[in-house]
Amino acid sequence: VYPSNGAVELNAGKKYFWKVRAIAGNAAISLFSEIFSFEINSNFTPTLTDPIGKVSESILPLFTWERVPKSKSYNFKIGVTEDLSSPMVEITINGEQYIYSEEAPPLQYGAKYFWQVTANNQEGVALGDPSTTASFNTPQGIVEIELKFGF
Q: Contact 136/55 with Cβ under 8 angstroms?
């Protein structure tokens, strides 16, 4: 069993390698085995669907992602930095979509934002890794009016 305390966290989709040898007391009594590899299953990592890399239609965008099996809720984060270290909003969502709330800190027109989702189990604990971090831009907020004069 991989250590759950004090060890580096293993991430889904990454290949890991391992080997073993026998030890008696403080002395190795065999050579190392051949090298084996494994990957952490990423079935519990949400896949974001919209908005990704485009201008949202509204200052209150609709965020969507694919359902993760066995998930009971999702942790949703949005912020102005790609690492989301200081998110503007971090909330728990029941379902696979979220419309940005008017009660949340307002999104600025013509700005770039980053967002991410993590699937949770019934106790609210993460089932797997967070989704990739996606970005989008808000609309410019400029209203263009075309005037036509007839003579």
A: yes
Q: Which long-range contacts (CB under 8 A, 24 or more apart) does 6-10 make?
A: 10/40
Residues 43, 93, 70, 68: is their CA dihedral positive or negative?
negative
Other C-beta atoms closer than 10 Å to the C-beta of 104 total: 12
Segment (H or E) for 1: none
Give the pLDDT of residue 109: 95
pLDDT at 35 (0 to 100): 94
SS (HEC) of 40-82: ECCCCCCCEEECCCCECCCCCCEEEECCCCCCCEEEEEEECCC
Specify burial of residue 74 (Cβ count, 10 A radius: 0-12, 13-18, 19+): buried
C-beta separation of 39 from 88 below 8 A: no
Which amino acid type is present at position 75?
Answer: N
Q: How many CB atoms lie within 10 A of CB 56?
A: 18
Spell out the SS3 assignment of 5-16. Answer: CCCCCCCECCEE
Share of the chain above pLDDT 90, in %: 70
